[in-house]
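Continuing the batch. This is chain 6 of the set; chains 1 through 5 are on the previous pages. Same settings as before, nothing changed between runs. Recording input and output for traceability.
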Amino acid sequence: MPELPEVETVRRGLAPVMEGARFRKVEARRADLRFPLPKDFVKRLEGKAVQGLGRRAKYLLADLSSGEVLLMHLGMSGSFRVAHEAKEAVPGEFHHPRGAPGKHDHVVFHMTSGAVVTFNDPRRFGSMKLVPRAELEHDPLIRALGPEPLGNVFDAAMLARACRGRKTSLKAALSDQRVVAGLGNIYVCEALHRARLSPKRRAGTLATRTGAPRERAGRLVAAIRAVLHDAIRAGGSSLRDHRRTDGELGDFQHAFRVYDRAGEPCPTPGCRGTVRRIVQGARSTFYCPVCQK
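Output for chain 6:
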């Protein structure tokens, strides 16, 4: 499933053709994705302008002139393809084998910008939902989300408060969207390595007994920010799925320090450890047992 950098890459690819444009025509080629499409989905979109295209955690948010927000999630295999006359770009396209062209093209937006934006989703774990703008923060998909890790309010004190008293592992805490939004397996592993913190360490150790942040909390926040910025600049990570706007693969997988590097030497200068793979919460965790404590 794509994480924050991949979704942000998709947003940046869609924004130039969607922001300021109207939905000239909408095709809903099936009645459902992961969930049923909203009632009167086509009617509620056609003729409406996209006033802004944002992101919250792993969700894309199209702010509409109707006062509603189109809330979109890529799911496991969803992608947006942008065609403009004879020229085609592919924001965030995933390159699983897709069968016949168009077979899994479930929703198509014809924009007044001249772009045709197609949502393709072979496994149909993606979703689209229309929510009144005034109710967005109270929507079940949004209301429990933690702070944005690249936002101004996310800092060591906030992370320490969220982790205070938690006996769960740091890996599990950071993967919890209620603690911090948008992180997943790849970037949690990479951030913990940069911060030199073990994924098995108790999350509560980021805070003192009074809830104040320890020095390691500041290190972790800085590492999270740094790895996300680096990944966004690289166009995200392409393992099996993600492609950049121009159809090329993201490049950040070439910069992984530990993720999917089991058995390789730890890249930390002076460390003689070897990257190890363990399983936490049914997911693979990669870390160096020597320099991550």
